[in-house]
């Protein structure tokens, strides 16, 4: 599903859970060695803009995403999902996951490219979310996330009125980055994150 194109950035299919790129440059992260589990490093942006709030604050999202000292192995967390579903081949931890609350301007013209997060949902807006969030974290929060390969943007509930999809992802890494966009409508569904991250790891749809 989806249409393959040439160029450095992928085109967006309007089908939910569908997003493809022309080339796959490699997996999301390297392993610790020739054998063993893959450590997935992610910078997660909980985005607010246009008067719309992110569906989670950082503490609430972290409780859903990562295990605490007393979290049982059968609890519904993303850390447990990866451990169980990959049979230990992919793992995340508090050391490899960085979660940020980010507020962005509703519209603007950075680098002569106009964006409007309230009225449009084009490739320009998709990458503006990512690049502006990264800039905020690096420059305002003064946190270096250059070593985190995966970027996950968790969007407000209201975005679905403009963006008809519920989740998008790149297949493999374009250069040194992998991207996931999650609509607020699916922000509590760990299977949506798992599905899209599977694409980041190079997996296609079955069938």
From TrEMBL:
Top-level taxon in the UniProt lineage:
Eukaryota
Pfam families named among the record's database cross-references? Peptidase_M11
- List the transmembrane segments: none
Fetch the InterPro entries from UniProt: Peptidase_M11
- Coiled-coil positions: none
Q: Boundaries of each Peptidase M11 gametolysin domain copy?
A: 41-207
- Any idea what this protein is called? Peptidase M11 gametolysin domain-containing protein
Species assigned in the record:
Volvox africanus
């Amino acid at each position: 599903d989806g249409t393959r194109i040439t160029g450095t950035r992928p085109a967006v299919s309007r089908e939910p859970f569908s997003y493809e790129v022309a080339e796959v440059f490699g997996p999301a992260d390297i392993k610790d060695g020739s054998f063993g589990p893959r450590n997935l490093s992610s910078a997660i942006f909980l985005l607010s803009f246009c008067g719309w709030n992110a569906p989670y604050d950082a503490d609430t999202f972290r409780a859903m995403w990562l295990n605490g000292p007393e979290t049982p192995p059968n609890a519904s967390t993303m850390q447990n999902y990866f451990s169980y579903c990959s049979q230990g081949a992919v793992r995340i931890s508090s050391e490899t996951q960085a979660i940020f609350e980010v507020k962005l301007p509703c519209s603007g013209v950075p680098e002569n490219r106009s964006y409007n997060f309230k009225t449009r949902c084009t490739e320009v807006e998709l990458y503006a979310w990512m690049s502006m969030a990264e800039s905020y974290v690096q420059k305002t929060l003064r946190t270096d996330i250059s070593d985190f390969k995966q970027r996950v943007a968790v969007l407000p509930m209201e975005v679905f009125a403009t963006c008809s999809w519920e989740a998008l992802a790149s297949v493999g890494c374009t250069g040194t980055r992998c991207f996931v966009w999650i609509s607020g409508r699916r922000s509590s569904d760990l299977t949506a994150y798992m599905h899209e991250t599977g694409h980041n790891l190079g997996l296609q749809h079955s069938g």
